[in-house]
Design a protein that fits this description.
With 142 residues, this protein is α/β, with parallel strands linked by helices. The protein is built from 6 helices and 4 strands. The mean pLDDT is 90.
C-alpha cells in the first residue's frame, strides 16, 4: 500500500523529529511512502532549489498514485491543507494527526467528509498506536 505523507515544509520545521518518527513507523509497517524524504533535515534547502511547478506536479502525481494520505497537522501549512483537500476530492482516505494542545484549522476539524479522520495524540507512543489502529481498521473495512 502506498501512503503519501503530508507535513509542513515552508510553514516551519519545529515538528521535524515527529515527521521522522511517523514516516519511520509507516515504513516499518511495510508501507511505501514515496515522499519519505520530506521528513528529513535539509528538505527546506532542497525544495528551495526546485522549481515550484515541478514540486507541484511531482507531489500531485504522488497523491494520485497513493492509496491514502497521512497528514501531521501540528505545524500549520497551506500546502498540507491543499494536499488534504486534493486527496479527499480524489476520494482517497485521509488521516490527519496532531499533537494535543495545538490549534488546528476548523476547516479540517469541522469537515464532515466520510473519508477524513482527524485524531490527536499526546506523544509519539500514542501516535504510533493510533496509526497502527487506524490501518488495522482500514484493512478490515476496505
Amino acid at each position: 500500500m502506498k501512503v503519501y505523507f503530508a507535513c509542513s515544509i515552508s510553514g516551519g520545521r519545529a515538528d521535524e523529529d515527529t515527521y521522522k518518527h511517523l514516516v519511520g513507523v509507516l515504513l516499518s509497517m511495510g508501507f511505501d511512502v514515496p515522499n519519505a524524504h520530506i521528513a528529513e533535515s535539509g528538505i527546506v534547502e532542497l525544495d528551495a532549489r526546485e522549481d515550484p511547478a515541478d514540486i507541484y506536479h511531482r507531489d500531485i502525481t504522488w497523491i494520485e498514485e497513493s492509496d491514502l494520505l497521512v497528514a501531521e497537522l501540528s505545524t500549520p501549512s497551506h500546502g498540507v491543507g491543499y494536499e488534504i483537500g486534493y486527496a479527499l476530492d480524489l476520494n482517497k482516505p485521509v488521516l490527519c494527526m496532531y499533537r494535543q494542545g495545538v490549534v488546528v484549522s476548523k476547516m479540517i476539524l469541522g469537515n464532515p467528509h466520510p473519508l477524513l479522520t482527524v485524531i490527536s495524540y499526546a506523544d509519539w507512543n500514542e501516535a504510533e498506536g493510533l496509526l497502527q489502529e487506524h490501518f488495522s481498521e482500514i484493512s478490515q473495512n476496505p
